[in-house]
């Protein structure tokens, strides 16, 4: 089986219909983190303070800063991050704003996707399949993963996993939709089969060094991916 295309995400400059803002935690200094922590919503700051590990706190702080940047880039007040609410299954939204966004983080990567339409984003470090694929993947998904050599298999597994996670986040159903109940690979195409939505969203997957970034969204146009600097994180904090 041919691999799902990894060049479907078009890198561009400026705010597209869908923008994914990324940050590498290796670029985060203690001073910048302190400034971010002082500006983000108290609820996020307090939640981050309860994390046992410093890296988890750092990811949460940066996620708040990326949300503020995404709001500002979309014409909203970045301070609106203080008014965030969550849906039934925890998907965040800004009451009264015609804006959709989603965050994800893994290892030293933090991402925030924003659009005028519904979306879901997920990022994961490349991981070896340690589960029985028959319990979580469709036959097409298993064929795709098992069609690579031992090294490529890990990347293929992670591509499918992140796409499935991004679809669940797109729906906003949390753990209410088991991974095995739908497929994101159909023959040689990327599409949701037997999912919970009325139609299949646009799906993008991108290899990102030792990570994989996946996105499901309602737009059909190009996606802009931009890397934020530490200075840009502080711009709206």
Automatic annotation (TrEMBL):
Name of a matching Pfam family: AASDHPPT_N
Enzyme Commission number(s) from the entry: 2.7.8.-
Record GO terms (molecular function): transferase activity
InterPro entries hit by this protein: 4-PPantetheinyl_Trfase_dom, 4-PPantetheinyl_Trfase_dom_sf, AASDHPPT_N, P-Pant_transferase_sf
Domain 4'-phosphopantetheinyl transferase N-terminal: 37-114
Similarity comment: Belongs to the P-Pant transferase superfamily. Gsp/Sfp/HetI/AcpT family.
Protein name: 4'-phosphopantetheinyl transferase
Organism the protein comes from: Microbacterium amylolyticum
